[in-house]
Amino acid sequence: MVASTTDTRPDLPDFTAIRGHIARLPRVNLIVRPTPLTEAPNLARALNHGKPGGPRIFIKRDDLTSLGLGGNKLRNLEFRLARTMAENADTVIVGLDLQSNSARQTVAACNRLGLKTILVLEGSKPNVIQGNLLMDYLLGAEVHFAATRDEQRQMLDGLADQTRKARGRPHILNDNPMFDVASAAAYLEATLEVLEQLDAEGLSPTYFYMSSSGKGQAGIILAQRLTGLDFRMHGVTATSEFHLPSRTAGIANETARALGLDLVITEDEIVNFTDFVGEGYGVPSEAGVEAVKLFARTEGVILDPIYTGKAAAGLVAHVREGRFGADDVIVFVHTGGTPANFTWADLWVDNTMTTKTSSTR
Ligand SMILES: Cc1ncc(COP(=O)(O)O)c(C=O)c1O
What we know:
The protein is α/β, with parallel strands linked by helices. It folds into two domains: 16-70 and 179-347, Rossmann fold, CATH 3.40.50.1100; 73-175, 3-Layer(aba) Sandwich (Rossmann fold), CATH 3.40.50. 43% of the residues lie in helices and 14% in strands. It has helices at residues 16-22, 41-47, 73-86, 101-113, 131-138, 149-165, 179-199, 215-227, 244-258, 286-299, 308-320, 340-343, 351-359, and strands at 37-39, 56-61, 91-97, 116-122, 142-146, 170-172, 207-211, 232-236, 271-273, 329-334. The strands form two sheets. The protein has a six-stranded mixed beta sheet with strand order 1-2-10-7-8-9, sandwiched between helices. β7, α8 and β8 (232-236) form a beta-alpha-beta unit. The chain is globular and about 70 Å long. 46% of the residues are buried. Mean pLDDT is 94; it is low at 356-361. Pyridoxal-5'-phosphate is lined by residues 71-72, 101-102, 183, 211-217, 307-308, 335-337.
C-alpha cells in the first residue's frame, strides 16, 4: 500500500525471500488463505470501560481454516501430510487425546486427500459422544480407544501391521518428525498474512496474543526476527506441562535449520504467560469462561474454554490492567477448538433445567 504523509510506519519488507524458504518444505494444499482478519471494536470498547481510546484489537480467524470446523492444525497438516503422500501411504494412523482438535482436523484433511484415518485416542469411550469425538465419527474415522500412552503406542504398531496384512500402506503420523517444524513454518507464514492484511488497512501490529504450547508461537517469533518489525508475541499457555520459553526457542531454531535460515532464537526472547491455566489443562477457568462469553457477546466470535478462552483471558486481563495505549494494535490469533463448547455445554446453559422443562411437556 502507498504510505500517506502522516503514516510513520516502517515500510512492509518484501516477503519473497521468506516465502522462498518456506517453499523448501514439501506441501499439499488444504486451506483457503488468507483466513480473515477482523477488527473487534465492540470488544475493545467493552475492555476500555465503554469508552473509545483503548488499543485496537483484531482477530485472526484461524478457526475458519476451511475443513472439518477449522483450527490451527490444518495449516501444519499441509506439510505433514505432504510427507505421508510422498511415502505413497493410503492410511494415516494417529494416536492423540480423546477430545483432540488435532485428531478432528487430521481426519478432515485426510478425507480431502483421499486417505483413510485410524484414530487411537487415549481414554475410554464416553457414554455420550460429543465435541471433537463426535466429529471424528461424523468424518468417518475408524476410532479405537487406549487406556494409557503405552497401550496407545502398542495399538498404533498393531494397527499398522494389520493394515499391511490387508495390503494397505499405513503411515503412523506420530512417527512423522515434522509436527514442530510444520507448525512453526505454518505460523511464520500466517504472520506474514496478518502483516499484509493489516498493512492494507494502513496498520502494523504491536502485539500478538495466541494460545501456545510453543509450536505456532515459534513461527510468530521467527516472523518477527525475519521481518525486523517491532511487534511482541505474547503466548498464553493452556497447560503447565512444558517450560515454554526453552521449548519455543528450541522449535524456532529447529525450524530455522529446516528452512535454511541462519539465525538463533534464545529463550529470553520468548514471552509466555502461565497464569491463565487455572486448575489445569482441560479444565475450564473462571477467567477463560468470562472471556469466551465476552468475545461471543460483543463480537459474535465463538472461542473455546480449553485453549482460546484462556488465551483471551490473558488478553482481557492485560487490557484491563491498562498495559496498552490507543496506538497499540493487538492481533488475537483464534486457533480454533470450538467443538469443545459442546462437551462443556453446562458452562453456557443450565441443561438440567432444559431437560426438566421439556420432560414436563
Ligand atoms: C485450539 C488450540 N489452540 C492452540 C493450540 C496450541 O498450538 P501449538 O501446539 O501450535 O502451540 C492447540 C493445540 O492443540 C489447540 O488445539
